[in-house]
Amino acid sequence: MAGERHIDRTVIVTGAASGIGRGIATRFGEEGANVVVADVRRDPKQGEKYDTDVTTPTDELLTDETPGDGTYVETDVGDPESVEAMVEATVDTYGGVDVLVCNAGIQIVGDSQSTTVEEWRRSIDIDLSGAFYCAKYAVPHLKESEGQIVNIGSVRGFEGGGGPPYAAAKGGVVNMTRDLAMELGEANVRVNCINPGYVETPLQDIVTEEDMAKSREQTLLPRFGTPEDIGDAAVFLASDEAGFITGANLAVDGGWLAHSGL
Ligand SMILES: NC(=O)c1ccc[n+]([C@@H]2O[C@H](COP(=O)([O-])OP(=O)(O)OC[C@H]3O[C@@H](n4cnc5c(N)ncnc54)[C@H](O)[C@@H]3O)[C@@H](O)[C@H]2O)c1
Q: In terms of residue numbers, what domain contains 55?
C-alpha cells in the first residue's frame, strides 16, 4: 500500500536485486524514497519455485514505477572495502543516508560434518559480518540524519535449524541489533530487526518438499510470507510511526515462533 512515509529519504537496501530485498526496496520506493540497491548482482535471481520470470533490475523498476529513484551499486557485503565504497557512492549520489536495511544473506544447507570451513567463513562473512560492516560505515551518516537501521534476521536466530553457520549468524544479528540500539539511542538513531519465517523467494530453492511441508505446519497462518510482507514491516520500523521502537526483534513469520510444534 503506497504512502508518503519516506519521501526524498535515502534508503540503502543490501541484497535488493532479488527476493525479500527487492520487496523491501519496492515498498520504500512506493513511499517516495530514493533507494540504493546494493547487491553483488544487478539482475534478479530466477528461482525454480518462486520469481521464475522476474527480469527487470530493481533499480530500473524503482526509477520507472515509483515516485523515488533507484540506483544500483555493485556491493559485496562480506568485503568491508566494498561496503565502505557503497556508502560513499550513496552519499555522493543522494547527499546522505536515512535508512540502512541489512538484508543480504545466503544459506548453506548442511550439518557440522558436511559444512566446509570455507562455507562456514563465507556464511559468517555475508550473514553476520556484512551487517556489521554496513553499520560501521553508515552510522556516521545515520547520526547526521537521525536515521534508522533495520536488520533482517530470521526465526533461526531464536531456534536451531538452518545449519550451524546460518543459525550462528542470525543469532548474532539478533543480538547485535540490541547492542547497536544501546550505542545509538542517545543519537536518536533507532535499530531494529525483522525476523522472517518462510518467505517465498529464490532462497527457498534449496528447501526439499519434505521440509516445505514441515514449514507449512509450523506456520500458523494459511499461507507463506511474501517479500512485500517484510517490506511493509521495514517501512513501518523506519517510519515516525515507530518513533519509540528501538532494539526490538519483530517476528514477521505467520506465527512460526509462537507454534509449540505440537
Ligand atoms: N526467504 C526466507 O524464507 C527467509 C527467512 C528468514 C530470513 N531470510 C533472510 O532474508 C534475507 C534475504 O533472503 P531472500 O530469501 O530474499 O534470499 P534470495 O537468495 O532470494 O536473495 C538474496 C539477495 O542477496 C544477494 N546477495 C547474496 N550475497 C551477497 C553479498 N555478499 N553482498 C550483497 N548481496 C548479496 C543476492 O545476490 C540476492 O539478490 C537473507 O538475510 C535471509 O537470510 C529469508
A: 10-251
**Does residue 259 sit within a domain?**
no
Sign of the C-alpha dihedral, residues 202, 122, 61, 44? negative
CA-CA distance, 108 to 116, in Å (whole number)?
10
Does a structural domain hold residue 134? yes
> How many whole angstroms from 261 Cα to the centroid of ligand 1?
26
| CA-only gyration radius of the chain, Å | 17
* Atom number of ligand 1 nearest to Cα 224: 3
Q: How many domains does the chain have?
A: 1
CA angle 54, 56, 60 (to 5 degrees): 150
- CATH code of 37's domain: 3.40.50.720
User: Is residue 5, in this structure, part of any structural domain at all?
Assistant: no
Ligand 1 pocket, 199 CB below 6 A? yes
For 127, the 3-state DSSP assignment is helix
d(C-alpha 105, C-alpha 78), whole Å: 10
> Does 149 reside within a domain?
yes
**Distance between CA 242 and CA 261 in Å, rounded?**
31
- Residue 219: CB within 6 Å of ligand 1? no
Q: Which of 178, 163, 175 is nearest to 105 (CA)?
A: 163
pTM for this predicted structure = 0.98
Find out whether the beta carbon of 23 lies less than 6 Å from any atom of ligand 1.
no
Q: Are strands 148-152 and 99-102 parallel, antiparallel or unpaired?
A: parallel
Q: Write the pLDDT tens digit of every residue in 167-217.
A: 999 999 999 999 999 999 999 999 999 999 999 999 999 999 999 999 999
CB atoms within 10 A of CB 1: 8
Query: What spacing in Å lies between the alpha carbon of 198 and ligand 1's midpoint?
Result: 12
- CB-side neighbour CA atoms (13 Å) of 192: 24
